[in-house]
Amino acid sequence: MPKASDVVTISKPVILANNQAGPTVFHDEASKTEVTWEGAGDSQGRDIQPVPVHYLENINFLRILNKGIFSLVSAPPEVQDLLDQYLANPTLVQQRENYKQEQTDRVGVAVTAPARPDFVFPVEHVPGYNESESRLIR
Fold first, then answer.
1. Per the confidence metrics, is the pTM higher than 0.85?
2. Residue 23 burial class via C-beta count within 10 angstroms: exposed 0-12, middle 13-18, buried 19 and up
3. Are strands 33-37 and 48-51 parallel, antiparallel or unpaired?
4. Average pLDDT of 4-16?
5. Do the bridges between strand 116-120 and strand 48-51 make them parallel or antiparallel, or are there none, so unpaired?
6. If you ran DSSP here, which 8-state letter would residue 17 be given?
7. How far apart are CA 121 and CA 48, in angstroms?
8. For position 18, what pLDDT does the model report?
9. Beta strands in 10-127 (DSSP E)
10. Which helix (H) or strand (E) holds 136?
11. Where are the domains of the chain?
12. 70 in Cβ contact with 16 (< 8 Å)
């Protein structure tokens, strides 16, 4: 699969929504960048954030997308096509379904974010996230 930065010249940002109830932080060590999303349905819209296109080359970020923790709000068509191809992989579809089932088994019911009922999100807090400092602790 080609890298996102190889096939797209950003004409508009890649924007993702957090589907979890609480804050979510992603830190990309290679680029030393970090994005924080507030919980799904945040009254000030901070649950939706733009991300650098190079995040889509980070395998850990792609795993998070596959779990449904984030959903794509908007992206250039080339980026959308790459993500659609990636997420349609049968192995990844099975992993996604397994993850959703594990989350359902943990809480006893499927828990979904408002306005995004097709994603199941975990109820635990992000490891290393300190709410009082509002940042990821390394």
1. no
2. buried
3. unpaired
4. 67
5. unpaired
6. E
7. 16
8. 95
9. 14-18, 24-28, 33-37, 48-51, 70-74, 112-113, 116-120
10. strand 135-136
11. 4-136
12. yes
